[in-house]
Design a protein that fits this description.
With 298 residues, the protein is an alpha/beta fold. The protein has a domain of 193 residues: Rossmann fold. Helices cover 31% and strands 24% of the residues. The chain is built from nine helices and 13 strands. A seven-stranded mixed beta sheet has the order 3-2-1-4-5-13-10, with helices on both faces. Helix 6 links the parallel strand 1 and strand 2. Helix 8 packs across helix 9.
């Protein structure tokens, strides 16, 4: 790994001077104290999930260690050849996808707010002999601990609902993109926050214009494995319009936006698995995933 990769701002030049110049370019509006408290509870939730996920059939860590690439075709199609490119993976969990990008030739950095997940990611990289840098930080605080620009910034599958402020998130994305760099998000469609299957039919169960987060008391996660300790989770609603607008307002140029009738797992009983391995609702009535690629103008 390059000695410059992921260097702390304080190691490069006085923190005050760096922060002042960064704030002028990227005036981050951090989440409120209440939202940060909710994010701390979410961080605990993801800490609880990490050990279960590592041992789950869903992630199948054993086959990954044997060489399986955990990336899905969608994100690979969107980003193309990443050989020799620097890549920042936001909300990377325990790093399987980050390390898959490394296997494809990218110079990777992964960031996540869960200490348990990042510890596992570092251990996994060391065990497999893959060059990678992993940072544990709240996404909104990442500019305080990472001083670098990347050719690619990527984030995928179930990330945005854990973030209370899309505008600040988009500015973090823009901060880490070099001029000419590419951002890619492949995300579960926000429709799933507002619909459910009731008596075999898909129905709207909440307002798409909702602004306050959902609070859930749960012992579940999305993988197989044992129940978690009871804990609270908070998820914030978002829309495709808000996503695109946030990226534009952060100074990025939208290159393409796709809404797809496929999903990576079965969320309601009527979904069926197609030959390509993705799950669909009968008749493809709604988009179930969204992808967006944006660039930072030169």
């Amino acid at each position: 790994m390059s000695p410059l990769a992921g260097r702390c701002l304080a190691c490069a030049r006085p923190r005050e001077a760096v922060f002042a110049s960064m704030r002028e370019l990227y005036p981050f509006n951090m989440p409120t104290a209440e939202e940060r408290e909710r994010m701390l509870k979410n961080r605990r939730a993801w800490g609880l999930r990490a050990s279960v996920h590592l041992n789950s059939d869903f992630y199948d860590l054993a086959s990954f260690k044997q060489g399986r690439n955990s990336l899905r075709p969608i994100e690979q199609e969107e980003l193309g050849d990443v050989r020799g490119r620097s890549l920042l993976h936001l909300q990377c969990h325990f790093g399987m996808d980050t390390l898959s990008w490394a296997r494809l030739g990218a110079r990777v950095t992964g960031a996540d707010f869960s200490e348990e997940a990042i510890t596992a990611a570092r251990s996994l990289a060391a065990e497999l002999g893959l060059e990678a840098h992993f940072i544990q930080a709240n996404l909104y605080d990442l500019p305080d601990v990472l001083d670098e620009e990347f050719d690619v910034v990527v984030t995928t599958y179930g990330v945005l609902s854990w973030l209370p402020d899309l505008d600040a998130w988009a500015r973090v994305v823009a901060r880490f993109l070099r001029p000419g760099g590419t951002f890619c998000i492949v995300e579960i469609h926000p429709n799933w926050g507002f619909i459910d299957e009731v008596d075999g039919k898909i129905k709207v169960t909440d307002s798409i214009f909702r602004s306050d987060p959902w609070e859930t008391e749960t012992v579940e996660t999305y993988t197989d494995g044992p129940a978690l300790e009871p804990h609270k989770e908070y998820n914030w609603p978002w829309t495709v319009g808000r996503l695109v607008t946030a990226l534009i307002n952060a100074g990025l140029r939208i290159e393409r936006l796709r809404e797809l009738p496929i999903d990576v797992r079965q969320r309601v009983p009527s979904m069926v698995r197609s030959d390509d391995g993705f799950w669909r609702l009968p008749g493809d009535p709604l988009p179930l995933m969204v992808t967006c690629v944006a660039t930072r103008p030169i």
